Amino acid sequence: MMRAWILPLLLVVCGSLVAATLAVRGFAGAAVPLLVLFVLLACLHSPLAFPRSIGAAEAQRRSALDGRPVVHWRAGCPYCLRLRIRLGRDAGRLHWVDIWRDPAGAAAVRAANDGNETVPTVMVAGRAYTNPDPVWVREQLAPRPRT
């Protein structure tokens, strides 16, 4: 679990050091936006930017019941972040498995990608798709009911 927080923590620490250096040298006006930028980047690369992850077995069970795709991801992956951002609110309709938290999820990704932990790997109806286009992933979701 700690591995998912290494990059965000490094971003916050580095941003704090750079901002503190700028502030000490008299550039407080530049230090504040820079620190805000580093904190924003840390949030985007943390597990906080993604819907709550579940285990691979639970995701497969839920997917079998509702037909929604399962997304295997990991924190710090720019392609996972791209998929998450491009899906927008629809991201919550998918089942997300963090391969750094779930060994079974990591094993499923390795089995689908010739032994590599390449993410995002999206499972649709038992078939794996590595780094698919976000538009295609959205099309795999059943239409939202109109209210």
Mind describing the biggest β-sheet? Answer: 4 strands, mixed
- Report the count of strand segments: 4
List unreliable stretches of 5+ residues: none
Number of helices: 6
- Strands side by side in the biggest sheet: 2-1-3-4
Which terms would index this structure?
147 residues, alpha+beta, 4-stranded mixed sheet, 6 helices, 50% helix, elongated
What this model shows, in words?
This protein is α+β, with helices and mostly antiparallel strands and 147 residues long. The chain contains 6 helices and 4 strands. Strands 2-1-3-4 form a 4-stranded mixed β-sheet. The model has no long low-confidence stretch (mean pLDDT 90).
Topology:
Layout: H1 6-24, H2 28-44, H3 56-66, E1 70-73, H4 78-87, E2 95-98, H5 103-112, E3 121-124, E4 127-130, H6 134-139
Parallel strand pairs: 1-2
Antiparallel strand pairs: 1-3, 3-4
Brief sketch in words of this structure:
It is built from six helices and four strands; from the N terminus they run αααβαβαββα. The protein has 147 residues and is α+β, with helices and mostly antiparallel strands. The protein is elongated, with a radius of gyration of 18 Å.
